[in-house]
């Protein structure tokens, strides 16, 4: 505000010039405008977040007012920070009591660790004022009881772990002020109904509720009726329609042509940037990985058989650009579910299976393309998969391979049973497209890839069932060698470690052919042809000097004939 001196040398406000902003102009929304704790603002700066996302801009002020919130927003839109920041703010302000004030329920261990890391990062400048514990892991009850004995301010858990610790008295909800159910539709779909009911029974009234999800369905409505009194509904699908825009393409092809297409796309750099390839199962993921290795294309597999820390390490390497291609499957990727609940609970809903996996919950950074090598069983899983790209306002591409019914089961070595209904799933995908979005034909001319077929077939033959099995076993052996829990055992049994290391150094399960890495120019579609050097005379030119004749040593025998053993003349005769 400008001031000037009047006639009596008293400062007064100057009149607004035509360049001065009007007082009615809306101020831009910032994290500081929410009135958050200054130490949290420093943590936000460390995350390099410039402005709040739409879900954060609407949810944080309401949460600070104490309202219950039921928010629907797409993946990658900042839902986690939208509930963490208000909870951290209130936790810092509420320091007179030492008790657990916030419980965050998530469906998977990966998501639990992700939420815990973000909460610790945002509160890194708060010292001991905020204590966060993750009890979603598969530690023993003694270890988890010790974690909860210190009465952490924020507890992150799966519903099953929370229920177990409530029953044995390790977790107390007497002072609970905030309850979060993240990915609420998955929590209910995974068969945690009994655990959720147990949490609700042990809760006191007046607890602030956050229900966060990417979809609104019957499961989420059940949670709403169980916990919420009068929640504020935030349906931010329309607000973020532009930021979630993904270019969607399909390619109809034969079963073996899928491998030909990914070979051409990556080797000719038709796909640029980081890519997630979704396949049908774990075996399928290793088949694709070993196939790409034949051409020197590096990739990593997110294998559900590996320990939790190893899977998270793979995700971190992908996010750090160590790998540009990540191959993942949705089958058996309900990470940590089988360890928490009986198997019969995991099979309560077919939709829960198909809606699970890396398509939900895990955070991937700067993914430019999602490649559906095998189309999922449902259109919902398709939209969750392609939600890995075009996040935070960035553009992205989704390419899906479709197997027509007349081409299904025509090539048994590469056939996958889940592709039987590709055309029906595609019809549902097209039916549920948002306004302004559509699925387009990629328009790939497979005839131009004919020169590559002999190379692709050669590489595909090298990836046998035995090679796939050995690749999976080899990776498990490597994890055993690196395991910290087994280090004591290996110290006492060094022969077991030597056997594992010997097996680890065996030959590669699939024979890599070095010549396949290089693509001659004449194979490229529209590329350079071999240069025409004209007629090449196979005879020596007239002026050519024959070095062999000039100065050649000739040894003759007594009869005057050339000795072939001493002159290397095969004829054995020559001029005398």
TrEMBL record:
It catalyses: ATP + H2O = ADP + phosphate + H(+). CDD domains: DEADc_DDX56, SF2_C_DEAD. Coiled coil: none annotated. Transmembrane segments: none annotated. The keyword rRNA processing applies. SUPFAM superfamilies: P-loop containing nucleoside triphosphate hydrolases (SSF52540). The keyword Cytoplasm does not apply. GO terms for biological process: rRNA processing. Residues 1-31 are annotated as: Disordered. It is an enzyme of class 3 (hydrolase). GO terms for cellular component: cytosol; nucleolus. Residues 29-57 form the DEAD-box RNA helicase Q domain. One of its GO terms (molecular function) is ATP binding. Its main location: nucleus. PROSITE patterns: HELICASE_ATP_BIND_1, HELICASE_CTER, Q_MOTIF. Residues 245-450 form the Helicase C-terminal domain. InterPro entries: DEAD/DEAH_box_helicase_dom, DEAD_box_RNA_helicase, Helicase_ATP-bd, Helicase_C-like, P-loop_NTPase, RNA_helicase_DEAD_Q_motif. A motif (Q motif) lies at residues 29-57. Keywords: ATP-binding, Helicase, Hydrolase, Nucleotide-binding, Nucleus, Ribosome biogenesis, RNA-binding, rRNA processing. It is found in: Nucleus, Nucleolus. Pfam families: DEAD, Helicase_C. Residues 60-234 form the Helicase ATP-binding domain. Belongs to the DEAD box helicase family. DDX56/DBP9 subfamily. This is ATP-dependent RNA helicase DBP9. It comes from Melanomma pulvis-pyrius CBS 109.77.
């Amino acid at each position: 505000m400008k001031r000037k001196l009047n006639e009596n040398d008293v400062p007064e406000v100057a009149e607004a010039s035509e360049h001065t902003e009007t007082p009615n102009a809306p101020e831009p929304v910032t994290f500081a405008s929410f009135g958050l704790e200054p130490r949290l603002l420093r943590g936000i700066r460390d995350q390099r977040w410039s402005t709040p996302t739409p879900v954060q801009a609407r949810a944080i002020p309401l949460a600070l007012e104490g309202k219950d919130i039921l928010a629907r927003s797409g993946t990658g839109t900042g839902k986690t920070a939208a509930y963490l920041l208000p909870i951290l703010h209130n936790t810092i302000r509420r320091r007179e009591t030492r008790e657990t004030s916030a419980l965050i329920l998530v469906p998977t261990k990966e998501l639990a660790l992700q939420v815990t890391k973000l909460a610790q990062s945002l509160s890194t400048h708060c010292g001991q004022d905020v204590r966060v514990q993750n009890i979603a892991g598969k530690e023993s009850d003694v270890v988890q009881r010790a974690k909860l004995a210190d009465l952490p301010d924020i507890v992150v858990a799966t519903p099953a772990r929370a229920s177990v610790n409530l029953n044995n008295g390790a977790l107390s909800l007497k002072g609970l002020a905030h309850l979060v159910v993240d990915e609420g539709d998955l929590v209910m779909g995974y068969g945690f109904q009994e655990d959720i009911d147990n949490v609700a029974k042990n809760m006191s009234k007046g607890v602030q509720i956050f229900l966060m999800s990417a979809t609104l369905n019957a499961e989420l409505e059940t949670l709403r009726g169980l916990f919420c009194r009068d929640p504020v509904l935030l349906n931010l699908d329309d607000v973020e329609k532009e930021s979630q825009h993904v270019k969607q393409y399909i390619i109809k092809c034969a079963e073996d042509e899928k491998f030909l297409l990914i070979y051409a796309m990556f080797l000719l750099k038709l796909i640029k940037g980081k890519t997630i390839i979704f396949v049908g199962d774990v075996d399928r993921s290793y088949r694709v990985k070993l196939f790409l290795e034949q051409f020197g294309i590096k990739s990593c597999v997110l294998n559900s058989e590996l320990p939790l820390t190893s899977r998270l390490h793979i995700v971190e390497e992908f996010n750090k650009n160590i790998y540009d291609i990540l191959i993942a499957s949705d089958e058996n990727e309900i990470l940590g579910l089988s360890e928490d609940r009986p198997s019969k609970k995991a099979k309560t809903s077919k939709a829960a299976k198909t809606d699970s996996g890396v398509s939900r919950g895990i955070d991937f950074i700067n993914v430019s393309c999602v490649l559906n090598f095998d189309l999922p069983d449902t259109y919902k899983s398709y939209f969750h998969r392609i939600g890995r790209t075009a996040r935070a306002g960035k553009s992205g591409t989704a390419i899906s391979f479709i197997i027509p019914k007349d081409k299904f089961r025509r090539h048994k070595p590469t056939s996958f049973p889940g592709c039987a209904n590709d055309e029906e799933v595609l019809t549902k995908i097209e039916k549920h497209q948002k306004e302004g979005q559509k699925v387009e034909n990629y328009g790939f001319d497979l005839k131009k890839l004919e020169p590559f077929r002999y190379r692709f077939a050669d590489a595909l033959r090298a990836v046998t069932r035995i090679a796939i099995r050995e690749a999976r076993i080899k990776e498990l052996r490597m994890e055993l060698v690196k395991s910290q829990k087994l280090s004591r055992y290996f110290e006492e049994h060094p022969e077991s470690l030597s056997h594992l290391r010997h097996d680890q150094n065996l030959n590669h399960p699939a024979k890599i052919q070095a010549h396949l890495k290089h693509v001659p120019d004449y194979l490229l579609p529209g590329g350079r042809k071999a240069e025409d050097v004209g007629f090449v005379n196979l005879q020596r030119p007239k002026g050519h000097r024959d070095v062999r004749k000039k100065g050649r040593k000739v040894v003759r025998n007594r009869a005057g004939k050339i000795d072939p053993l001493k002159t290397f003349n095969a004829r054995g005769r020559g001029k005398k």
